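Q: Two folds, back to back.
A: First:
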Amino acid sequence: MSNSPAAPPSSRPPRSRRPLTVAAVAVPVLLLAGGIGYGVAGRGGGDGGGTGGDDAKAAAPARTSAAPSPSPSPRGPLSGKVVVLDPGHNLDNRLHTADINRQVDVGNGRKECDTTGTETNAGYPEAEFTLDVVRRARKLLRAQGAEVRLTHDGDREFGPCVDERAEIGNEAKADAAVSVHADGAPAGARGFHVIMPGAVHAGKADTRAITAPSHDLGTRLAASFAKATDTSPATYINGGTGLDTRSDLGGLNLSRVPKVFLECGNMRDTRDAGLLTSARWRERAARGIAAGVAAYLTEDAGEKS
């Protein structure tokens, strides 16, 4: 994810962070068969560990909408749950710079409608990566009975804007929402991280009711993603915890449902790029996302029963 409106990808300055620890969270992981800009893949090896670029282009998703995936299983463990998945950025944002540079209200300030996102040094776009991973995760979650909605499916000219992405989750009354990204940090910085909403109560933003459940979702997602992908938390975010809290992201500030951002890997690092451009690794990333969401939703259901 890149925070610069339409400029070439660049790294972002460090944010203030709160110490949180992924390792301390015991999470039941359900592994399934099978940026703005924020995040990085991992130090670990695993399938495609740094060598997956050979199948990147052949397996890259088409720029048109995917064929519909199967309807939710009515008897699955996630039956009755609504999940919103948000593929970061849009492949055609670069063709609509005036539109995506338009400022929108995010409660405690104003931000660009959207950004172009980042890309690998070889030119594999973040927006292409995120859409492919989200489509894979949608299929896995639907197989467990969840109703899954996307903020876009490669079917829009640009965007949607960050405020609309949040509103899609709100209108769906989502039980969980995950925005998928990949980072554009300096080469040598590796590892995934999850961004959770800070407490914001300003203008039309009020995250006070969702900060705790979003933190729960984030910690479960981080644990499941690490296990499914055999990667480690980011080396350059919050002391290697893999968890970060921010109050400057419109997609989180304006959400009224539990929501997090997942930065799957650093596209500007050669080794991470090898993972992100591997179709097999993207499937593992989708499994990690689906498992983390399922762990959060099933635990949530158990606590409420």
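A: Second:
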Amino acid sequence: MYFVDVQGTLIDDHTKLPTCGAVAFIDYLNTQRIPYMVITNSTKNPSDEFLGYLNQIGLNIPHEHYLDPLMMLESHIDKNQKIAAYGSEPFLNVLCSMGYTLDFSSPDVVLVAIKEDFTPDEYAQMIEFLLAGAELVGMHKTTLYAKNHKRYPGVGAILKMLEFATSTPYTVVGKPSIPFFEEALSRLRRQKAGAAFSEITIISDDVKGDLIGAQALGMRGIFVLSGKIRNADEIIPSLKISERPAEIYPDMQAILEHL
């Protein structure tokens, strides 16, 4: 059984097209009736729209095999709460379409997603809201954000910075939060009753943002080098032995060939 990441794992961060072996890997899981969940931290498009795009580019992922943070948001933030949201314009548009109220004067929640061009003034505004008592919520906890062949601080890095600056604890909606993984497991159990974390292999290009948290729950981690990290030596030597993934592959094709 598998949990499979999307960005940098199934689709290329730059072209947004399937990585080598991604289509064949999903087809293999479907054909062999192997239980799996595709778990992404995507927040720029409505869930059905992004899944539709993945299907369009050849990744035949049924709706019941898919989970993203937007599908979990209502369990973290009530729609009566006022939100100061920070992220790309498409993300802000998605929040409005879901019925959330954006408020940049006296918000109840500071909600952080990702974009490559956060400004110092935006960080200053977040800090003021947090010091005034707003909650801090991250859509996910990615370490790096890759775009245009550049790597930017991910949401996880920004949350850590804000926590350090304001002593405000944060919660995370998507990966690697326990509630997100538990929801993915609950949905996986509709494919195989009684499934447990110890039976699941998670595949991702983000060791700190995905694999470490999943492995702490008992999952087996596979690290692919098709995304944020270009060489295993950039990250693996800095990890504790217990944090290191069980296996490392260049891409999904190599994993499929191993199977």
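Q: And?
A: The helical segments are 22-31, 47-56, 89-97, 120-131, 155-166, 178-188, 207-216, 252-258.
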